[in-house]
Model the fold of this input.
Amino acid sequence: MIDLDPWAWAALAVAAITIGISKTAIPGGNILAIALFAAVLPARTSTAAMLLLLMVGDVFALIAYRRHAHWPTLLRLAPAVIAGLLVGFAFLALAGDGIVRRAIGVILLLMIAVTLWRRWRQDKTDATAPAPGGILLSGVYGTMGGFTTMVANAGGPVMSMYFLATRTPVQVFLGTSAWFFAIINLVKVPFLAGLGLFHVPVLLMDAVLAPLVVIGALAGIRLAKRMDQRLFDRIVIVLTVVGAVYLLF
Done:
């Protein structure tokens, strides 16, 4: 078991609950968990430790929303995401922690700016029509999502910006996100294992924290049923901005 102070365990406990809630109610909300894990553990170790807990949350997200996924969207994103994962793996193997964090922060802020601009432009023309999800849009967001999820488990905010940009309804948003990250997180395991990041102390620590992820996921399912679309969008955007600023500074 990793030797940590009580305050550090408390921070990781909050992070584990947040992971569960983000998986079933607020995609992109796990940026808080990323910050807490990175504050307590070495950056590369935190990436591996979080991945296993995210996979626990994936199970509950799939149970709750598996039928709401939009598979054409997932297939459209797949090639760009794979490219982003490979670039992210190379970057993670070569770059220092500080460079990785700042790069992700810049990417997130750019994605937010582009998303808000697209939505403002569409509102000027037709506020009721669905936003287009073309090849260029899916290519850019898919590549950035694959890259950021590989290097820091921070793909949630990027993909949230994509789903907001295409005005995806809450249930479809959650269902598509559930399948997207369940698949991607499984794919990431051999990459991080190849870097030697899954140590026995990390596995033991995750075994202690996993029940808290379950509690958060169950709470998130109840929360999502009561959430208004506009409030949902605003929460995702605010959490993404906060996460991006944290990663930058």
